[in-house]
Amino acid sequence: MPNTQKYIDRVCEYRQIPPVTKGMRCVVDGRGGKVVGGNSSANFNVKFDDNGDIRNCHPEWRMQIFTDNNCIYYDFEQGVT
User: Fold this and answer.
1) How many other CB atoms are there within 10 angstroms of residue 58's CB atom?
2) Residues 6 or more apart in contact with residue 80 via CB below 8 angstroms
3) CATH code, domain carrying 57
4) SS3 category, 40
């Protein structure tokens, strides 16, 4: 899996979402984790807190991304907040 900022940038550009930085906290379908990369499906690779698994996660499916001070940066339902 290409877990680099370069691939995260490609996902953001393709999906037309705000720039995301590797390591940003996120919640996907109620599960906490962090964005660790991007993939050829134009989705993020998310490492989940509960079991350490890295999964392919579509940014427009039940995903929220947070700033360092826990403000919502991106919300799948609202877009940029």
Assistant:
1) 15
2) 17, 18, 73, 74
3) 2.30.30
4) coil
| 18 SS3 class | coil
Number of domains in the chain: 1
Tell me the pLDDT tens digit for each residue of 12-68: 999 999 999 999 999 999 999 999 999 999 999 999 999 999 999 999 999 999 999
- pTM for this predicted structure: 0.91
| Pairing assessment for the beta strands 44-48 and 79-80 based on DSSP bridges | unpaired
- Domain range for 76: 5-80
Q: Are 43 and 28 in contact (CB under 8 A)?
A: no
Question: In whole angstroms, what is the distance from residue 22 CA to residue 34 CA?
Answer: 8
- Structure-derived torsion over alpha carbons of residues 70, 28, 48, 80, reported in degrees to the nearest 10: -40
Q: Check: CB of residue 75 under 8 Å from CB of residue 33.
A: no
